[in-house]
Each structure stands twice: as C-alpha cells, then as structure tokens.
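Troubleshooting: if your tokenizer reports a length mismatch, compare your output against this known-good record of 328 residues.
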Amino acid sequence: MKQVLVDVRPWNKELAITALESGADGIVTDSAAPVRELGRITTIAPDGDLVLGKDIVEIIIKSTEDQDKAMETAKRMPVIVHTPDWTVIPLENLVAVADSVIAVVKNLHEAELALGILEKGVSGVLLQTEDPAVIRDVAKAVQGHGCRQDLIPLTITAVTPAGMGDRVCVDTCSLMTDGEGMLVGNTSSGFFLVHAETLENPYVAPRPFRVNAGAVHAYLKLADGKTAYLADLKAGDRVMVNGAKGSCREATVGRVKIEQRPLLLIEAEHKGAEVTIILQNAETIRLAKPDGSAISVAALNPGDVVLGALDTAGRHFGMAVNETILEK
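Known-good structure output:
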C-alpha cells in the first residue's frame, strides 16, 4: 500500500493532530517528543523511529547530479525527493529503478500525479501544507490508491458436505457494505470473494464488520500480494477488503472467532483452472456474484457464477515463490 507522510516542520501541533486523526503513516518533524505526547505514529526525526540521514534520506533535485545521487541512494534505502519546480521527469527516472521513492507534494493534485507516475507510482508522498483539510483529502486519496484486484467469474461445479471443522470469523474495525468481502481459498492459486455479513436475515442481525471466511487452513489474500492463513490472524493485523467491482482497501482485525461448525466444500472452475474453498454450512454464509449481489452457500448449485481471483501457486511465509508446488 502507498504511504502518506506529513511534514510538521517547524512544529505545528494542529497539523500533527490532523495527521494522526487522518490515519497518516508517519510524521516528519524536528523532534519526535511532542508527537509522542499526542499518540502513536511513526516519527521521522533526528530522535525519531526513523532517523533522517540514516534510515531515510532527503534529497532536493535541482540538477542531473542531484538526480543521479537520488537514483543511487534509492537503490539502497528510502528517499524523500523534493522537486522544487515540480518536474515529473526526475520522479519517473527514480520510480523506474527503485521501489522506495517518497515524493514531496503540496496538494491533492500533486499527490495524485506522483501516485500515477509510470502507472507504478511512487511508494508514498510527503505532504507539506499548512491546511488541515488538505491533509485529510490527501490521506484519504492515498489510502484508497493503488489497491485494485481484478476479479473473474467462477462457475460452480460442485457443492458437497465436508463434515465438521473449525471455521474462522474475521471481525474487522471497519464497516463493509453490500458487494464487499474478502478473497479466500483452499490454495494460494485461487480465491473466492466471500461476502461480508451485511445483509438482513430473519434469524441473525447483520454484522457488517464480519466475514465468515472459511476453515482454519484457508488462505486469505492481502493487499500487498501476500497471503495469510486464517488461523494465524489476530487483533491488529491488516487484511484486505475487496469490492465486487475490483476496489480494495485495508482493514484492521479487531477479533478472530474460531468455532467448530458443519462445513461445505465448494468447487468451481475458470477456463479449466480449478478453485476450491471450504466454508461453514449455513444460510448466512454468502459468496459474491458478478453483479455484486450475494448468494447463500445454502442456495448454491452447479452452474451458478460467483466472483473470485486466480494467482500464482506456491507460498513461503505468505510470499509467492518461484518453485514447483502442487496444491490440490
């Protein structure tokens, strides 16, 4: 995910508070002490969590020599790049060779431009402004930028009882809406969009913060391309919430509930690729259809079409690896 940092040099308490309340990833400041009195956030300062000049370098690009220095440094460590006349070319050159480029911006327009450079975009922005409203706008834009997951139609081929087992409810600190859920699958090569519990039900009240995600062994796809076992999730972890139209955003796990329940094995295919998942056998458990509506696993039949995603098989500690691994 992209990062948004806020520059509060010289010290500006109002801007620091706004950065905290807006969910900024860090604050650049002359001293970390006053920031720490306000709350917990990464500080970039001589006495901060990250030390300027040691953990991250700040470079002003005014010449080709400055650009060359920034390009060489960015290969080793994160670089904050100032382009005083807001020229895009130096940023393009940096983004082409490095993944840790943070562009200094002054408004939402500059932030959006930097985030879209060479499609890949910078890894983050450092916002320099005296307007708290600009901080809120840029933070919102950055937090929703660069996270997209293209979804594909999966055709159901079989739905069969799978006995009893432990299933996981992922309760987040965010409210989800109709059409949103999480990508979960039995293997790291294929996922179903498991719908959040946003719908009314005669027997159970909606739980729009919850996804009844599947059995403990299943993979959950994260925003950074990694996966996590459902059984390993805990309070404070960051997970990805997906929308039926391809949008995605991060959410914080507030609680995980693991309980023994009756299960269903759901099998599907997409152009010959097989995708499977084991979910709780209950009418409140739903998958997402291509139009964004939800269908209960209790009503699911061969031939029905739901949303999902395919990925490269083979994981090591959640990261994709280039080796021969057979999952079935």
